[in-house]
Amino acid sequence: MRLVILALFILSGLVACASTPPNAANDPLNQSSAVAVTLPGFVTSPETTLHWHSDLVWADDATGQFERRGQVLQKALQDEFERKGYRFVDDAASATYDVVAVAMLGDVKSHSDILEVFRLYPSLAQPAKGYEKGTVMVAIAPEGTKDIVWRGALQVFTDTGLMPAAQRQQRLEWGAQQVLGSIPSIR
């Protein structure tokens, strides 16, 4: 009897495996490359406060086409920091750290000025037909300095035109979680 029950259990598992959809990891929109570097000077506590040094910059967007997406991404980054226990302040002088973020489409290597500051090189393994690369980079420095103590970058495949706005927002929120994944929680 035990053998029959075990056989039925195994068969039901095989049927479940056979009926699952194709592996979502093969979908380019589910692929990402993240990298982060933390220096010893990045010390946090429940009193740590953050301040946006400037609004998120969307590189190579002279027409402002991605301005709204930049705002949504900056809010997603701030929400993720706050979920980890960090508080943002309006007054730069009262902040522990300044935060700066840049987003871009295309090849990161074409932005040497940005790479010089961030010194991070996320790279997806291979191109995906019909998709563009998108990258977000975040840096943290003690307030009033340019001494970066934490930096992170995330590169993903993106479809800038066909994705519905709600799905795009979820994806930007997911990206914020990924790029800030190594930031310690202070709760």
Question: What does the model show?
Answer:
The chain has 187 residues and is of the alpha/beta class. It has one domain: Double Stranded RNA Binding Domain, CATH 3.30.160. 30% of the residues lie in helices and 24% in strands. It is built from 4 helices and 7 strands, in the order αβββαββαββα. Strands 1, 2, 3, 4, 5, 6 and 7 form a 7-stranded mixed β-sheet that branches. The radius of gyration is 20 Å and the shape is globular.
Secondary-structure topology with pairs:
Blueprint: H1 2-18, E1 32-38, E2 49-52, E3 57-58, H2 67-83, E4 87-88, E5 97-105, H3 112-118, E6 132-142, E7 150-158, H4 165-179
Parallel strand pairs: 2-4, 2-5, 3-5
Antiparallel strand pairs: 1-7, 5-6, 6-7
Top keywords for this entry?
187 residues; alpha/beta; Double Stranded RNA Binding Domain
Q: Structural class, please?
A: alpha/beta
Q: Provide the low-confidence segments as ranges.
A: 1-22
**Averaged pLDDT:** 81
Structural shape: globular
Total number of strands:
7
CATH topology: Double Stranded RNA Binding Domain
H and E string:
HEEEHEEHEEH
Share of helical residues: 25-40%
Distance between the termini: 52 Å
- Beta fraction: 15-25%
Q: Brief description of this entry?
A:
30% of the residues lie in helices and 24% in strands. It is α/β, with parallel strands linked by helices. Strand 6 (132-142) and strand 7 (150-158) form a beta hairpin.
